């Protein structure tokens, strides 16, 4: 299930109030600054600090690499 792009534009981390990365394949919203993941359950983002989970360095690398690739594709499409 994918999240509405308009919703993604306005969602922010409840802890640092910054943007989150949507990782559709794992159904999470991810904060790379804090290395925390917020699950998406039944299509609803659970943006509670108490429900967030710290991710491993390996998962952090995977999520940030995915995000970098997405940004490159978006840039290529805009140019």
Commentary on this structure:
This protein has 79 residues and is of the alpha+beta class. 35% of the residues lie in helices and 22% in strands. It is built from two helices and five strands, in the order H-E-E-E-E-E-H. The chain has helices spanning 5-10, 57-78, and strands at 21-23, 28-31, 36-41, 44-45, 53-54. Strands 1, 2, 3, 4 and 5 form a five-stranded antiparallel sheet that branches.
Shape: globular
Helix content: 25-40%
Largest sheet: 5 strands, antiparallel
Using the CA coordinates, give the radius of gyration.
12 Å
Name the poorly predicted regions.
none
Report the end-to-end length measured between terminal Cα atoms. 29 Å
Count the beta strands. 5
Report the β-strand fraction as a percent range.
15-25%
On the 0 to 100 scale, the average pLDDT is: 89
Number of alpha- plus pi-helical segments: 2
Q: What structural class do the secondary elements suggest?
A: alpha+beta
Question: What is the H/E order?
Answer: HEEEEEH
Oligomeric state as shown = single chain
Summarize the model shown.
This protein has helices at 5-10, 57-78; strands at 21-23, 28-31, 36-41, 44-45, 53-54. The chain is of the alpha+beta class and 79 residues long.
Describe how the helices and strands are arranged:
Blueprint: H1 5-10, E1 21-23, E2 28-31, E3 36-41, E4 44-45, E5 53-54, H2 57-78
Antiparallel strand pairs: 1-2, 2-3, 3-4, 3-5
